[in-house]
Amino acid sequence: MPGHRFEAKHHKKLESSYRKKILPPAATLKKFGLKKGMNVADIGAGSGYFLIPAARMIGQEATAFGVDASTEMLEIIRRRRHPSNVELVHTKDGYTVKIGSGSIDYVVVSSVLHESHPLRLLREIRRIMRSGATLLIIDWRKDSLRAGPPVEERLSPEQVRQLCGKSKLKSVRTTILNSRYYAVVAKKA
Ligand SMILES: C[S@@+](CC[C@H](N)C(=O)[O-])C[C@H]1O[C@@H](n2cnc3c(N)ncnc32)[C@H](O)[C@@H]1O
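^ thats the input. predicted complex w/ S-adenosylmethionine below
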């Protein structure tokens, strides 16, 4: 069962200075291989925490797609100052993403997988990835109890790796990022 969806009214939490300190968006994307010219999709883009820095990093020749199931969240991004290579995509059912098959070089899914049917979402993500593309999954550690979603709804890195395998994505690296988050990187063969 999917966990609770993050409510748009709490969007300021996503942009807190503490979060920016422990999870600096541009540095995190760079650390896991985002480069100029790559087409990016941020699935569950929220307030644009990763989307807007990603759009700047890839340059005007490439596109940063911000995908969200919440029209309220997409409206928050729309109202922010953002580069013109940002394209917003609403997914009505949360699992059908209007982006062409094999068109994306780098996907980021941060604090989203535990809110969804992860397998359904990962299969759709795999569809939009080109061969060799990178998928960066960031999610909450189960042993971080001060904030975040209910612990029973969180996925462990091992569970995420298994789900990647079931979606025919090859998980290549697990990293503990800080006291709250871990990252799993996967590739489409
Ligand atoms: C906790 S917020 C994280 C936002 C952003 N990724 C970040 O790290 O700051 C989760 C976001 O994912 C969206 N979401 C949840 N499930 C989704 C799905 N299946 N497809 C698209 N968006 C989804 C929610 O609407 C919300 O905006």
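The radius of gyration is 15 Å.
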